[in-house]
Amino acid sequence: MLMNRRQFLGMSGATALVAVCSPQALAAQTLTLTHGAQQNVSATLKAMQQLAQQRNRLLGYPINMTTPPEEFFAWRNELAAAGFNQFSFNNVGNPYDHSHIPFNCHPFEKELINRFGAVYGFALDDIWGFLTNSGTDSNMHGLYMGRTILKGRTGVMPKIYFTREAHYSIQILRDLLHLDWVVVATRPDGGMDADDLERQLNANPNRPALVVATIGTTFKGAIDPIDAIQAKLKGRTAYLHLDAALFGGYLPHTAFAGDLLHSIVDPISKAKLQRYDSIAVSCHKFFGFPSPAGLFITTRTNFESFRAQFSQIHDPEYIQQVPGTITCSRDAVKPAEFYFFSSESSFIRQTADAKAMLDNTTYLLKEMNNHYSYLQPVRANDRSNTVYFITPSKTVVDHYSLATMQIDIEGERTPCAHVVVMPHAKKEILDQFLTDLRKT
Ligand SMILES: Cc1ncc(COP(=O)(O)O)c(C=O)c1O
Fold first, then answer.
1. For a FRET experiment, which of 3, 63, 83, 277 has its CA 20 to 30 Å from that of 258?
2. Is the CB–ligand 1 distance for residue 142 below 6 Å?
């Protein structure tokens, strides 16, 4: 027997619960929900279509809103024809090892990591990594690997070092990994103060150091100086992880490609020097991959040290390998799709995008200085695609989805906003933004 709404409301809570849990009641309920939900679905899709027309004015967050080229969608179709996204594929485990589950895209994942590893100057025979869910996920793997290696080497839990300008997720990961932490002071431009790092390292002589250097801090676009940091770490037990979520995508395609090189040859001793241990880069930021993903790249040597520790505690029998990844099941569709972004023609496109982005940032800064100098616009360095300034009106902040933050300017907490000039933020959009600023 189906009941009407009045009969239902007249019941006590417990009776109502039994009533809705009976199959008949459930059928009635489902019908009602389905009808309402269907209306909502159409309305929601319509709103999304309208929203899509405004995507170029997303200026406050580092997401590339450009639609990938047609060839990307053709590649998607090829993948679909091979079964991807048609039934369940799973990239569980280490893409460099044999997988007992054959339904994976490990060959594509391994190849794209090797290609990006080469872009970042890793020795070709010493690359390891995988495609993660996001920049945060890549950072998590970097910190977990660093913690495991340092603890294994010394028997002592490391302390983690980062600055106040690091992304907020670093603090979350610090909590997850139960790490004691040290906040390192910054220079006026927002980059890590290497002398303060040295002071802090000296104050903690009995603990290994897990250092996070941010190459492109979230709000200011500042750069922590890798070589100065490495110089302070010399002779200490340390692991240096780079959070290059945004800048890591485009710097290799600019005149500043050398900034992120993993290995360099010492000009005097001719010895090969490693400048960092691992790097995290987001795929949806500069590259414009249409959903969140991240690159995590380290050396094979680091992975082997990690594996040595990990396999002492965890029996890898179930999946027939030591995965090196925190999550068990991993997306197989994203690496197969992101493989597209590691092709020669994609690198050429990325070079053009990187140049346009930095040129447009220069343009924005110049125009703001010319017309709105009272907003005190700042670009932390010539590598940065970020300009921050005193917060304009709420209308402008909302219209362009500008991120806002209180920051110290000459000793005073000052409300600021920033524009991150991504590839979709072309001159026309920036001109509209500059015109709208006039009204504030
Ligand atoms: C420096 C930095 N690190 C990490 C992240 C987090 O990256 P994701 O959003 O890919 O998790 C961001 C995001 O803006 C960032 O700016």
1. 63
2. no
Helix, strand, coil shares, percent, the chain, to 5: 45, 15, 35
Rg from Cα positions in the chain: 25
Nearest to 400 by CA among 436, 426, 362, 440: 436
Question: Does ligand 1 lie within 6 Å of residue 138's CB atom?
Answer: no
Alpha helices in 219-268 (DSSP H): 226-233, 247-250
Q: Which pair of structure tokens corresponds to residue 328?
A: 């068990």
Q: What's the half-sphere exposure (Cβ side, CA atoms, 13 Å) at 423?
A: 23
The residues, ordered by sequence, that sit 6+ positions from 410 with a Cβ below 8 Å of its Cβ are none
Name the residue among 117, 342, 357 with its Cα closest to residue 216.
Answer: 357
Substitution candidate for ligand 1 out of 134, 140, 162, 167 with most atoms within 8 A of CB: 167
CA of 250 to the centre of ligand 1 (A): 15
Q: Determine contact, residues 389/435, Cβ cutoff 8 Å.
A: no
- Mean pLDDT for 47-55 is 92
CA distances from 409 to 61, 187, 189, 265, 326 (A): 22, 13, 11, 40, 40
159-163 and 209-214 beta bridge pairing: parallel
pLDDT band at 310 (very low <50, low <70, confident <90, very high): confident
Cα 32 → chain centroid? 41
**pLDDT at position 322, please?**
81
Which pLDDT belongs to residue 1?
Answer: 40
Q: How far apart are CA 110 and CA 125, in angstroms?
A: 13
CA angle 222–225–226, rounded 5-degree value: 130
